[in-house]
Amino acid sequence: MSVFPDIVRRLPEAGLSIDGLTIHISHSDTHEVWFLHSEAPVDYPPHAHSAQWGIVLTGEIEITMQGKRRCFAKGDSYYLPEGVEHSVKMSAGYAEIIFVNEPDFLGRTAAASRAID
Questions:
Q1: What is residue 6's three-state secondary structure?
Q2: What is the DSSP string of 17-57?
Q3: Nearest-CA neighbor of 50 among 100, 85, 104, 107?
Q4: Considering Cα of 24, then 111, then 18, then 88, what sign does the dihedral take?
Q5: Which among 21, 60, 17, 55 has a CA at the least distance from the CA of 39?
Q6: Residues in domain Cupin type-2 (predicted)?
Q7: Residue 9 domain-assigned?
Q8: CATH number, domain at 59?
Q9: Domain coverage including residue 31
Q10: Which of 8, 17, 82, 87 could form a disulfide with 51 if both were Cys (CB 3.0 to 4.6 A apart)?
Q11: Are strands 94-100 and 42-47 parallel, antiparallel or unpaired?
Q12: Is residue 26 part of a domain?
């Protein structure tokens, strides 16, 4: 069950092929805001992208960046600078709101993911 209300769940979904992960996206000409919810644990490999700021709503996330592992829980926020490689592990029931400093980032990511499948 999503922690987000209907007004958020009516936004477009990212369409990523990650079991148990749902991301609703609010697009603008300069950035995206993601409403992310994971029903199952997610272990996402090292990657890099535009600057990202997130705030944890429920559950826990572990972010490894520049050899340092940090854990964040409800109410915590984090910042990932542009181009810095990182990996993430999310607990089941994890939810967050994320600001990404790039328009259509997940649209391109989802399209690339589908092309690989």
A1: helix
A2: --TTEEEEEEE-SS-EEEEEEESS-EEEEEE--S-EEEEEE
A3: 100
A4: negative
A5: 21
A6: 46-89
A7: no
A8: 2.60.120.10
A9: 21-100
A10: 82
A11: unpaired
A12: yes
The Cα 4–Cα 88 span in angstroms is: 21
Report the 10 Å Cβ neighbour count for 24: 19
Q: 77 lies in a domain?
A: yes
For residues 25 and 34, the answer to whether their CB atoms sit within 8 Å is: yes
Total-model pTM: 0.85
> Which pLDDT tens digit goes with each residue over 34-73?
999 999 999 999 998 899 999 999 999 999 998 999 999 9
* Dihedral, 57, 29, 25, 66 alpha carbons, nearest 10: -50
Q: What tokens does 22 get?
A: 């749902």
Name the band, by pLDDT with cuts 50, 70 and 90, for residue 104.
confident
Q: Is 78 helix (H, G, I), strand (E, B) or coil?
A: strand
Number of domain units in the chain = 1
